Amino acid sequence: MSKKRWRSPQTKSITPQRGLALFRKYALVYAMKMVDSTVTMRRQSATWTRSGEVVGLVPTMGALHKGHLTLIRRARKECRRVVVSIYVNPIQFGPNEDLARYPRPHQQDLTLCRREGVDLVFAPKNLYPPDHSTYVEETERSQGRDGSSRPGHFRGVATVVLKLFNLVRPTRAYFGQKDAQQVDVISRMVRDLDVPVKLVVVPTVRDPDGVAVSSRNRYLSPRARTLAVEFARLLQQAVKKKINPASWLGQQLKKASGIKLDYVEIAGDRLCVAVFIGKTRLIDNERLRAYP
Ligand code: AMP
What is the domain class of 11-202 according to CATH? Predict the structure, then answer.
């Protein structure tokens, strides 16, 4: 008879980390903190910093979808504490943009965060005093693309991200490749201003039909959704072209009725594009396959 003791396969695979993750997922009274005050946020991050905890921050504007959840899951794997910030940052919206109608399904967002084992949701009501007068402006990578189409957008983004870094004091911060220029601007800001945080860039999450997941996709009518699929398909085709992928994509999009081209540009090794489908503005980017 074998002398080996029998162990259930389940018991064998439960490491302390996995045990903690399962506890977070299934515990009935899992206490996720919800903080809307900057003072409380600072106090909490000071406690975590003192005890040397690895803190991951996922900055979002809410209306969470599977793109955001992918960032949160990555943070959950790599960090002892996970903070999700939810803040629709008014200063990154232009006067004619969709600030007022931006979706804010707060309770649903909290449920999703709880399910993912987030430790703290930081959802401040307002981050700017009435006489706020200091901004962060990156002046190189914020040029062109969204920087041209949305003047002041990256100044708003860089300012709020630095404020969030100062309040949450994360060890690691998670951003999506979907917003490629945002990643370019934030990484330059972090380098230039010696911000002690490691940036983690997560690949773009797409729906099965190829459309990059976005909070703004909920504005799309069924007809607009088919145009968004066409937009995503043309981008995937363009990045395989050896010659002039940007002008090829521009021509195809100008021909597509119902799609209005905003810009198409190559930045580094990526083809970046923005369009309007009806009133909804969609951005996307992919790595050029045929380039060295
Ligand atoms: P937002 O709430 O739109 O400001 O996005 C918050 C973060 O989620 C940003 O870092 C985005 O780049 C990222 N994100 C949004 N959509 C996606 C996606 N489809 N795939 C990966 N990351 C995404």
Answer: alpha beta
* Atom nearest to 63 CA in ligand 1: 2
For residue 14, the model assigns a pLDDT of 76
- Residue 289 DSSP label: S
Distances (CA, A) of 226 to 69, 140, 191, 209, 220: 25, 36, 40, 9, 9
Q: Closest Cα partner for 40 from 120, 157, 128?
A: 120
Question: Which of the four CATH numbers 3.30.1300.10, 3.60.150.10, 2.20.25.100, 3.40.50.2000 does domain 215-287 have?
Answer: 3.30.1300.10
At residue 21, the pLDDT reads 67
The model's pTM is 0.91
Which residues approach ligand 1 with their CB closer than 6 A? 60-61, 67-68, 70-71, 175-176, 178-179, 202, 204-205, 212-215
* Ligand 1 center from residue 40 Cα (angstroms): 26
Q: Is 68 one of the annotated active-site residues of the chain?
A: yes
> How far is it, in rounded angstroms, from Cα 137 to Cα 146?
14
3-state secondary structure 187-241: HHHHHHCCCCCEEEEECCCECCCCCECCHHHHHCCHHHHHHHHHHHHHHHHHCCC
What residues of the chain score a pLDDT lower than 70?
A: 1-13, 21-22, 24-30, 291-292
Q: Which pLDDT belongs to residue 1?
A: 47
Tokens of 246: 């940007």
User: Per-domain residue ranges for the chain?
Assistant: 11-202, 215-287
Spatial separation of the C-alpha atoms in residues 192 and 288, rounded to whole Å? 28
